[in-house]
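> example.struct
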């Protein structure tokens, strides 16, 4: 799920190959990793500095995670839905960019910002949806969690209104994030250990 090969790995999501060396920067890691092969066997795993490209700390193992949340198999479905959006408020340059994104989605090509269209890929899930049924959620400060999430929502909504007002996105574009109410409802289905229970309605923990 990484992008096309790059000559230099200097940003998350990139990878390159030079002979028996593969450089890869997984979005889940703070630094990129250099994989050295001898034949088809891994000789070493090392983090490296993306600025100097010098190898550093040796790793014992590396978990390869997806470079994107977007499952490209569902991109054509997203293209169909996005193509039906009302673009009458958008300026020509933005409409042209949107059509390019729609074409890329329809042909299952990845591009920067594809996650912006995740709500149109089908049912969206959060980390909470992957928790086991009997998982225990631990919250240090429920009120702060609520306040920070709602602050993010307000900022995101303001950005959306600004973009719509400037004609850069279609009207009523779906939110590419979960609201606090949606997250809260999911969290309340699990057992919880709350160090600060203020603001939480009475519910079996």
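> example.seq
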């Amino acid at each position: 799920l990484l992008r096309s090969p790059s000559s230099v790995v200097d940003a998350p999501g990139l990878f390159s190959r030079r002979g028996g060396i593969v450089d890869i920067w997984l979005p889940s890691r703070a630094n990129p990793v250099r994989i050295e092969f001898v034949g088809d066997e891994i000789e070493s795993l090392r983090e490296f500095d993306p600025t100097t490209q010098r190898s550093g700390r040796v790793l014992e193992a590396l978990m390869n995670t997806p470079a994107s949340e977007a499952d490209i198999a569902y991109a054509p479905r997203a293209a169909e839905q996005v193509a039906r959006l009302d673009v009458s408020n958008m300026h020509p340059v933005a409409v042209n960019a949107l059509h390019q994104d729609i074409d890329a989605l329809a042909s299952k090509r990845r591009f920067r910002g594809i996650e912006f269209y995740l709500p149109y890929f089908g049912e969206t899930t959060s980390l909470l949806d992957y928790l086991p049924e009997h998982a225990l959620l631990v919250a240090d400060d429920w009120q702060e969690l609520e306040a920070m999430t709602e602050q993010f929502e307000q900022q995101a909504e303001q950005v959306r209104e600004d973009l719509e007002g400037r004609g850069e996105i279609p009207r009523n574009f779906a939110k590419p994030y979960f609201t606090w109410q949606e997250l809260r409802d999911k969290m309340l289905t699990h057992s919880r250990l709350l160090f600060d229970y203020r603001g939480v309605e009475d519910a079996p923990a």
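> remarks
The mean pLDDT is 87.
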